[in-house]
Queue: 2 jobs
Job 1
Amino acid sequence: MSPASGLNLTPFIPELVLAGGLLVLLIVELIARRKRGIVTAIGGSILLVALVIISLAGNEKVGAYMFGAVVQDGVTLYFRVLFALATLIAVGIMASTFKKEGEPYILVLASVMGMFLLAGSNDLVTLFVALEMVSIPSYVLAGYRRHDPRSGEAALKYVIYGAFSSGLMLYGFSLLYGLTGATGFAEMTEGLKGALSGSPAHLVGIILIMAGIGYKIAMVPMHFWCPDVYEGSPTSITAYFSVLPKAAGFAALFRIAPLIASLKPFYGISAVGLITLLSAMTMTVGNLGAIWQNSLKRLLAYSSIAHAGYILMGFAVIVSGDKPELHGLAIQAVMMYLVVYLFMNLGAFLIVDLVERRLGGDGIGYFKGLGKSNPLPALALAVFLFSLTGLPPLAGFIGKFYLFAAVVKAQMWTLALIGIANSVVSLFYYVRVIRDMFLHDPTPATDGGIGSFNMGKLTAVLTLVTVVPTVVLGVFWNTLAEWLKLRLM
Amino acid sequence: MEIILFIITALIALASALMVITRKSPIASVLFLVLTFVCIAVLYVMLGAQFIAAMQIIVYAGAIMVLFLFVLMLLNLRGNQGWENISPARIGLGFAAAGLLLLVAVAWLKTAGSMEVAGLDPEMGTVSAFGDVLFQRFLLPFEIASVLLLGAIIGVVAMIKRKPLAELGEDKEGKVS
Amino acid sequence: MSNYIPVLLFLVAVLGLTGLMMAMVIFLGPKRSNPDKELPFETGSAPSPGDARERYPVHFYLVAILFIVFDIEIAFMYPWAVKFRQLGLFGLVEMLVFAAILMFGWFYIIKRGALKWK
């Protein structure tokens, strides 16, 4: 057998295009004379559009390839499209901030390369390398305002928490490897299912792996870095952080869900119980934390923690595992929610970034009376915040509806009740911002006063790109739901 | 014979790890960290993981420790780096965490006999066996590691060789019209 | 374990030789001290005035981290060299791809002037 047999590159084309494009872009960035940032941003956008098209074209399901390191199925395909789309919008948001240098875009694309691999990872080694590939460029991006101490603090906290949780996760990996002697997920799941009873090594291994992935998705109790990093990073980078590495963490969770589901109850701790507890804690801490925030970036950071908690509800159903149709429904709900979350969260950060660039800050004071001085951005932000709350007829409602439907069908009543109580709490702090925007007069306390400003063409287009799906998906969600269902067949 | 060697190495590793976190001078901490790494390399050898042991010495005890020293000289720490900055609450939390770990360890030991552990090939840690899996089974993670390293290069150079904020060309035009 | 006896012998030889040389210097060498000899040795140049513990420029860190990156690249070449014959052309292409991607990094370092000492 020649070593090259078993090497099938056809399903790998999106990743190859991304890697090649990344290298070409690096050269372009190096030889461009002026406006390196703009040139790189445009090049990166073209690459991302190409990736969406290529990913959609590679429709077939091939299973494991590349010696079993990666797998291509409907979920891989979905995540590739999701990552490319979200990055396209994030690059657009960044283009208003980074004009003279192209490195941020290159770093973002390197990170996306890791995400693509993560979506298809079929093996502990691939999963870990891909996860680090998502993280390492992110650390640099968090500290990109080099002369702002808050940005330095953000980068340092991100690195230290990241290294710590990677270490925990690796320890978890080594425990499960010791139990099964395999690194491929399929073999490991087989091995773990064969065990007669739950063992402490299995339980501790799963908990440690959850800690590592929980760090990426900002799950309680691995969420402490999140508000500080979101606050200190440049706002356009925060927009990227709030959606992409998080979605990548959920992609990883999809891949290891069978490992978690294989956990046999040990001292009364079952897989479903574990995820349910984490989900309930995450949404509660996120929503309660958000109430006290006066900075919009911190508020959205806590809200993103809460949303991770909602998405984890779907995973609680996924790992419950005994009924296959329920399983499919839950996966569909999570996939649906991530699409909706992408548009509404990037949109919200887009407006916060706009206000910060024009008025100089992201404190709640800068938003007071925005509805009178700048009705269009204020209206857009209101739409995003209502959608984040989950009010009909916006997309956020549909996303939540699917998640709650899965939880209720699985008869997890407690979790459903906690979720609903949390949605009510979240209404309070989202609406507070909207009330301040529309019912307050502009206060002179905000530095420089509040006047009407022009949005800029790019921001206007991006607002449209994020508002339209947020509204349209709330009414015509069926096409998306059907498309996702087809991916899962 | 082997168990004696293991106990000695493990004790030195633990003692020097304790020294790392109790020394007042960060430089001394780094040197004890090197000692810890060397002891861990010995443990790797005893497990038959030659390649990992060599990497532990070359990359960790060698290159990464140099990096640590540069960072320390960059930060220029001096004076109070002692215990007095740590609040009692933190020490309490530390003991709580240690207690939890003890609980897990006890649970572990009580069930250790009944645990099924996968049998592994004793030769799997040799350089040759490592090369076999790295360049075939794990070809993809290996190639991806180069992109990861490329990202690290770009990141660190971009961070350090940057111009001050004023020259960044942030979008400030049309601030208030 | 017995595979490692040569390593142990090597270790004993290194320690013994070092000890022997130190002992020879102490017992056989002449000791004539003068003020210049008592100065700290700084690679041949005159000792820098003032405290040795001043802040180092961040540039040292940059060089060190770039060194680590390429150090890791070399580390991967070690098992590759051992398996080179069995892997054949396939292995060569693999390593070329790996090194080529890192060469982009090297090109970036040179072009950005990261190794220039101001």
Job 2
Amino acid sequence: MMNAIEVRDVHKIYRRYGRRKQFATLKSALLSGSLLRDLRPDETFEALRGVTFDVRAGSTFGIVGRNGSGKSTMLKLIAGIGKPTAGAVRVEGRVSALIELGAGFHPEISGRENVYINGMMLGLARREIARRFDDIVAFAELEPFIDAPVKTYSSGMYMRLGFAVAVNVDPDVLLVDEVLAVGDEAFTHKCLDKFAEFKRRGKTILLVTHALDLVHRFCDEALWLNEGTARAQGDPKRVVDAYLLDVAASENRQLSASAPSREPQAPSPEPADMFKANEGRWGSREAEITQVALIGPGGQPTHVFQSGERMVIALRVRAAQPVTDFAFGIGVFNVDGVCCCGTNTYIDGGAPGELSGESEVRFVIDSLDLVEGTYKLDVAVHRTGGAPYDYHRQLYTFRVTSRTKDVGIYRPRHSWQFSGGVRIEGLE
Amino acid sequence: MFAHLRQLVRYRALVQSLVARELTARYRGSVLGFFWSFVNPLLLLLIYTFVFTVVIPGVHPPELEPFALFLFCGILPWTWFSSSLLESSSVLISGGNLIKKVLFPAEVLPIVTVLAGLVHFCLGLPILAAFLIYYRADVVALDLLWFPLIVGVQLLLTLGLALLVSALTVHFRDVRDLLQNVLTLWFFATPIIYPLSQAPPNVRRLLNLNPFTHLAVSYQEVLFRPGPFTDWPRLLAVGVASVLVFLFGYFVFDRLRDTLAEEV
């Protein structure tokens, strides 16, 4: 199979802005064509440190990584907007880069003229644009406004037009940098449909994104960049999991480090829709959760559990005045925000008696049958009607690891049984 | 470098559209619209004529009558030259989004600026022609054949300097402020509001080093002064210099090309 993109040991060094005068760099730029030759190492920043990978023609390739890991730099080098400091980038066919939608639009002139100019900037001839013009406008759904100046467009219209032009360039290689994060739901779907169509037609797509489910769903291969080096490459699920594990590990480090200082957290306002709320803490505080600990099978506090292990969630609770209407609740969410389980003492059939003074509540999960991943924890003490005394929303994170790489949320205890002419070995 | 120059030819449709965009976008929303292209040089001319015929009359020798026409021959090309350079100094920075986000040859931007200036210059020509007819100027018809050549030389010179200025400004924002003052000095160091013959000999030697002196003198010789255009060897010398300036400007731009996206 032919490669659409070949990246060979690519380094990219940027100049740090700083104290030193610029004459040296200008001189070296003029004499040697490089800005960096005369710079000391502490005046430069190495965004990419020897990255090598291939993208097969017709495949969809995802690049994941944290902010500042070099993803966008890599994309710019592939798009030809920058030159690698060392190493080589080779791209086969026409490239269209969705780095910023509508980057070349001029606000004062009409959408029509902008389509032409933008298309020409992306390498189309006037004729070709004229032929595709109706498609572009139809895709952007801007027929009534195409002759209005672009400055009168809403930002959604602006992006739709930019996207429509870029994808209608009919590239062999499409580079996408996080543009899906900006559109509304309908626009995102439309983009995804367009990508799927590209894929069907055998075009190559390179996707830089933080939407990891997109990498799962769309990509044939993925690359994880970390601080300018390739940490993992290959099957998207493996790569994403490895990435998530690393994120979770550092999160857990941060979490454990900052756990004590998190306790007296400032109350956040109670959200209108609890299920859409992000992390936070709210409630009337007649009863308070003063401490939350996750305890592993060995009895030690931990943030990482093996799938199927015993997990204990221990809450320290304080009620200054005795409270008679109360329930304790637990909720576990995966990284996509899906509630994996949620229950409370009232749902479980417990009628509240009295809660007073200091106490400890333990929620014991005998077998944590979750698939590998990162999970967030809600804990709460609230009235049986739901009004919270103290609600901790996704303030606690734990990681489940597993030797088996199954997908989904729940990993039921299971076995396979066969009869007849089936022989499979190695199943537990 | 020459490969890039050749590649530029492929982008001529883009350059063309961008020039058209420059021109339409500039006057969008103004009442007079395109008319400003005519009004601007006229107003400028009116001011200078007022100053030199009403405020300080009699400083120019009588052979420069009608003085308004003499002024116009120099001011019109100068306006093109100076506004192109000033705009080029900021064009890469204001178009920074393009350079960083879209793959296309950055030199298109200063080139478009200069060409849009050329179009404005050409729009001023009918007014110049009207002046010539009104004053019954003694133009030798054959001399007019030189006119496109003078414009061509000025175009090359302006392009070369615009490329140089635009690329350098990305690295040193000081260039923009410096340029404003240099252009003011340059204006007075060019025989536009005075004839070259009026300058003292040692000053004249200095003025002769200024390429725009010869362009201005050529415009005046062809359009204003009676008699055939005899000064063409100087024009050709400036022409050769302009080619060199253009190549040098393009060379510097080409060398700095890869740094532009990072420094903008």
